[in-house]
What does this fold into?
Amino acid sequence: MSLAPLAGLPAGTHRALARLVVAISLALAVGGVCAQDVRADQVPPPQDTPYPGTIAIHVDASDTSQGIFRVQETIPVQAGALTLLYPQWIPGAHSPIGPVAMLAGLKLSANGKALKWKRDEYNVYAFHLDVPAGVSTVDATFQYLSSRADNGGFEITDRMMDMEWSNVALYPAGYFSRGITFAPSVTMAHGWQFGTALETASQSGDTTTFKPVTFNNLVDSPIYAGQYFKRVDLNPGGDAPVHLDIVADAPKYLEMTPEQLSVHRALVTQAVKLFGSHHYDHYDFLFSLSDQLGANGTEHHQSSEDGMGPDYFTAWKDAAPGRDLLAHEYTHSWNGKFRRPADLWTPNFNVPMGDSLLWVYEGQTQYWGYVLTARAGMWTAQDFRDALAMTAANYERNRQGFQWRTLEDTTNDATAAHRSSLPYRSWQMSEDYYSGGQMMWLEVDAKLRALTHDSKSLDDFAKAFFGVDNGSYVTKTYTFDDVVAALDGVAKYDWASFLRARVDTLNPPLQNGLAATGWKLVYTDQESAYEKQYNSRPEPSRHLYNFAWSIGLTMTDKGQVNDVRWDGPAFKAGVSTGATLVAVNGQTYSNDVLKAAITAAKAGKSPIQLMLKYQGGFKTVAVDYHDGLQYPHLVRIEGTPDYLSQIIAARK
It folds into this structure.
């Protein structure tokens, strides 16, 4: 439509009509797109009806050198259209990261004849085919090509493997995953032993056949296997067996001292005392000790995938950081697998998940992971306080992103960022529902104790909320209102407003829990023993040197800048994430040289000169910082109840 005939009208009228014309044009354009270009996949929605027949799946996982998992499936079918799905939304990942790009060589056939398949135009996880008349089964063969990058991320090595069924299975669309039955079997490298929540039906040579299981439970039951394997009973005499299934890079890493065995058994005891129940027939910690197999921490209902460095046991005295992993993933059997946010439950693995309550699912699990590690004796009380001090310091000095994001908004991070590295984490933030949620639940615990004059605590919430239906492992969903009602059942209070003020507002008061439990955060120029271990261990921090609370940098041991605190001293000087620090005040960079420079600057007015290598060039920046080294610690607030010590005391 031309505007020329309108040229003689007043300017204001002209502009108004012009805007109207543009609006009409856009509306017509959008309407045309909507009417003619409906871009939706052709995947049948899941129905809660049983799939007819049992799908046989066999995985040959014996290729330890090339990392190729070879899959065969026999799928009962009826004539007509059939859609096969590769799992996309993976439980525990909270995001659509199913590695469909690693599926290769897909061939479908029936009665020995090849069947043509076509990937959905708008859904790369869906494969369509037409089943001819007279065909009752379709055979599917393909390979899952696991990562071969030598960066500590292998799924299978020449000594061990972590096999997740979601990576090696196709399943029919149109059904709830709980309505599809699979008969699984796997062939492993010769002589390997394994741990899994699946129950063995038979064994022939290196091939194990498991009892038939619904697809949701199959995906929930990974396999850890290895050349060097040890199974440890963590609940002798208990009504539900719990085992630690260890695979290691060498036999020496399998050895546990009596004291180590005792505290790992105490973890099970303390968790069951906390929740007053269990929601499994049996439970297996699938535990890899390796610097080759990818480090892992993924929850399942009757097992968990747990990965640490090879010297977890042999370097016990120097390796407290990361030791809360087992407690965290074990807690998920109650919080996340049995009790699950309603928007995180899905009928199959290709329906999008909602993550809005991850500050309960993960945040409270992070809280109990720390607490149970201390109650079991896997951490000393000082280890616990030092670990909590580092978390608290992040939320006091290193999360400027709360100026524009809420804690609840960070529950979108797993989907938005796919857990990739971020250039400015302190500003962007990244899944802060874990540790930010932990800090909030610390305050909730203190509040419950204060409201009830120390007669009730978050332990009572845990029993009432997660401990119901002892023995059941049928998922029981919950909403925000259910959480509020359960807290109200422990102690009457305006919990809805309390929680919303922390998860749904900017600059939430996440430090309140420390003072409420009788402790406060202080900084000194000396690292705690825990932080020294954290900064020197290859796992979980990979030699991360933390100057976030002083000049505002974290770096690898090679000097590469891992993060820059937003609006901190280094940021204001122009330091960028990804740069490499090569010299400090004219001296070749080392961790000790940087520490000395920060210390010297406290007594003078000269800025700290940092020479950086970045994008093929060198530059020197002046960091105007004079407050010295800053490392967090917790100290008691005299004259207040010491709730923190009560929280981590072992339950009798």
Notes: Residues 1-35 have pLDDT under 50 and may be disordered. The chain has 18 helices and 34 strands. Residues 44-227 form a domain with the Immunoglobulin-like fold (CATH 2.60.40.3650). Residues 11-36 form the longest helix (26 residues).
